[in-house]
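Need tokens for this chain, all 235 residues.
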Amino acid sequence: MHNSHIPQEVVERVIKRRGREHIHDDLTPSKTALVVIDMQNAFMPGPLAHAPCDMAPSIIPQINALAQTVRDTGGVVVWIQTACTAGDKITWSNAHKITRPERAEMRYKALARGSEGYALHPEMDARTDDLYVEKHRFSAFIQGSSDLDGILREQGVDTVLIAGTVTNVCCESTARDAMMLNYKVVMVSDCNAADNDEEHNASLRAIYLTFGDVMDSGMVSDILHRRSNARSAAE
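Here are the structure tokens for all 235 residues:
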């Protein structure tokens, strides 16, 4: 697991700007979605991967535990899976022109809809009552990528907890666009994985400074339970 770290200087800048260290510690559990990004075989170390993230397996236990907490407190869990289709070669052609042709072809093969690479890693605790969304860009929210925004709005979601791989590409892209669409955003530090600590932490700092909040899964779970219990007591 990464050595996640937000420098104190960054924390102080956030407090000066927002008034407190964690701006989304008052989230509503029933309006919260855990959005788990790209925890697919194609991104895990192993023969099915085209872009393996060695750190990704280490975040599986934290994601599974947080998913159960979100379910228990009335939120929703969304599993995001990247797919590569023939249409993407046209509509997102530039993304594949900036990499070597053989790597682009590996990506299409590994992420073909219904393939073993497309499938979620078998250790992910994905349930039949969870939501499943296919995306076609790094960000799950950007136009042309998926119908995630509409699905979450139908569920009454106003807060997204971002988890998955890799921190500084698909996870950060999704987090930024979620904020632009007026969702409250929390990057869950120990539920995100990147290729190294430097890239992971740079992404967390960027989100924390401008786009949302950063908490570890323990803190998020405590908030969800506390806020859920308080709501139940009030009713």
